[in-house]
Write a structure and sequence with these properties.
By secondary structure, this protein is α/β, with parallel strands linked by helices. It has 16 helices and 21 strands. It has two domains: 279 residues, Aldehyde Dehydrogenase, Chain A, domain 1, CATH 3.40.605; 191 residues, 3-Layer(aba) Sandwich (Aldehyde Dehydrogenase, Chain A, domain 2), CATH 3.40.309.10. The longest helix is centred in the first third of the chain and has 22 residues.
């Protein structure tokens, strides 16, 4: 028999009747062609709902509505304090609907319900509140110039921003994209991942309930190759804000070039290192935190610390500790059970992809010291946590993003060697440094080629932290004040005072 909490979540999951239609110009409606996408629970293989699958014509209708509302000034010219109040109320409604939003993402993506309630929903609320509170804090400037002129510089919204979001953090990533776009006064068309659209549709409803004008925030689920492409190619869209794979990110830039040279921000893949130096004081505590940086969210995290670079002098001891912590804490289970720390992967295709990396690592000569067995599940998508030693930097498992609970442990011979190995990746999203020497930490942080560095922690941060990477990990930043500024453009106004 399940616990009371367990029963609560299963009961809620059984009674939810989610909205499945597209939201365009303030109205929920079916896709023009009547097509749907099956939303499948990766823990059971059961169909949760049939979600309307938007085509290019639906994207066009949403973009048309967004442009119309922007030019009418329904949102872009609304008094700033009114925008603040509406988005603040939007944040409140996200918080009030925590259980619903948490269950929807858990059902569609497999994320443990405890993580949804402790991380994803609170982070979404915080993001929306931060952006709402920042709206009337953005200012232009008045440069000093000749006495016969007045020169001032305005910050104004771009127009329509197309947001294309991934399936690994369906709610949180959607809010990371839409919050700064809306706060800056833009209209938005959101295309959520085809596996995880239900929480995005709830966001659309809550925006309207908060007092948001029709057509300012539109949600069009659909296939990436159809709806996503149409959004990125639209001549009505002024910017695409994208999070996803590096391969699709490249396509976003091509679509921008092939259309109206729209702005693109892209947070892409990663192969982030966690560097463990021999001077750490509590190796067991470090091993426990390194495991969290790798296995959280089933490893389906762009910034997952999946390359673990360990000083050769402590390599064997650290591996034993890491295996122990990972085996005790990260066990796949029912994601609706609040005690579960690891759910299934998002779908069968991705499950097979991750299993392919595990099998390939063995073929290339790596040794599995934890997990690595083939999953026998026919309907579910669970994969046990997996750690490999004997990994060389040239191996596939050390160079490509697995996006699953799979870690590659690589020995290093000191600070310079660790930095060299860390920077040998074509990605540059994040990195972790574990050391008791503050000077060493600063030197390594300076020399690492990535957008985010954590010292003696992993994936810590708040809304002051710019989230994004270097190299093949993309360009642009989420979360922070810069994300709001990047949703605007500057306008220089030169007034001649003397004729």
């Amino acid at each position: 028999m399940g616990t009371i909490a367990d029963t609560k979540w299963h009961g809620l999951a059984e009674t939810i009747r989610p909205e499945t239609r597209l939201l365009i110009d303030g109205q929920f409606r079916a896709a023009v062609n009547g097509e749907t996408l099956a939303s499948i629970n990766p823990a059971t293989g059961a169909v949760i709902a049939e979600v309307s699958c938007g085509a290019a014509s639906d994207i066009d209708a949403a973009c048309e509505a967004a442009v119309k509302r922007f030019r009418q000034g329904a949102w872009s010219r609304l008094a700033l304090r009114q925008r603040v109040e509406i988005l603040s109320r939007f944040a409140d409604l996200i918080a009030e609907n925590c259980d619903l939003l948490a269950v929807l993402d858990t059902l569609e993506m497999g994320k443990p319900i405890a993580e949804m309630c402790a991380i994803d929903v609170p982070a979404s609320v915080l993001t929306m509140r931060f952006m709402a509170e920042s709206i009337d804090k953005i200012s232009g400037s008045v440069p000093v110039t000749n006495t016969d002129a007045l020169h001032y510089i305005l910050r104004q919204p771009l127009g329509v921003i197309g947001c294309i979001t991934p399936w690994n953090y369906p709610l949180m990533m959607a809010v990371w994209k839409i919050a700064p776009a809306l706060a800056a006064g833009n209209s938005v068309v959101l295309k959520p991942a085809e596996d995880t659209a239900l929480s995005a549709l709830v966001l659309g409803r809550l925006f309207l309930e908060a007092g948001g004008p029709d057509g300012v925030f539109n949600v069009v689920p659909g296939r990436g190759a159809v709806a996503g492409q149409a959004l990125a190619l639209s001549m009505r869209v002024d910017k695409v804000a994208f999070t996803g794979s590096t391969g699709i990110g490249r396509q976003m830039y091509r679509y921008a070039a092939d259309s109206n040279l729209k702005a693109v921000s892209a947070e892409l893949g990663g192969k982030s290192p966690q560097i463990v130096l021999r001077d750490v004081e509590n190796l067991s505590a470090v091993a426990e935190k390194v495991a969290g940086g790798l296995f959280g969210n089933q490893g389906e995290v762009c910034s997952a610390g999946s390359r673990i670079l360990v000083d050769r002098a402590i390599h064997d001891e650290f591996c034993d500790l890491l295996v122990g912590h990972a085996a005790r804490k990260y066990r796949p289970g029912d994601p609706l059970d609040p005690t579960t720390t690891m759910g299934p992967l998002v779908n069968k295709t991705h499950h097979a992809r991750v299993q392919g990396y595990i099998d390939g690592a063995r073929t290339e000569g790596a040794t599995a010291i934890l997990g690595g067995g083939s999953s026998k599940a026919e309907t579910s998508c669970f994969v046990d946590p997996c750690l490999f030693t004997g990994v060389k930097s040239h191996m596939t498992i050390a160079r490509e993003e697995v996006f699953g609970p799979v870690g590659a442990i690589i020995p290093h011979d000191g600070l310079e060697d660790a930095v060299r190995i860390a920077n040998s990746s074509p990605y540059g999203l994040a990195a972790g440094i574990w050391t008791s020497n503050l000077g060493t930490a600063h030197r390594i942080a300076r020399d690492l080629e990535c957008g985010m560095v954590w010292v003696n922690g992993y994936m810590n941060g708040d809304m002051s932290q710019p989230w994004g990477g270097w190299k093949l990990s993309g360009h642009g930043r989420d979360k922070c004040l810069q994300a709001l500024l990047d949703s605007t453009q500057s306008k220089s106004v030169w007034v001649t005072l003397e004729s």
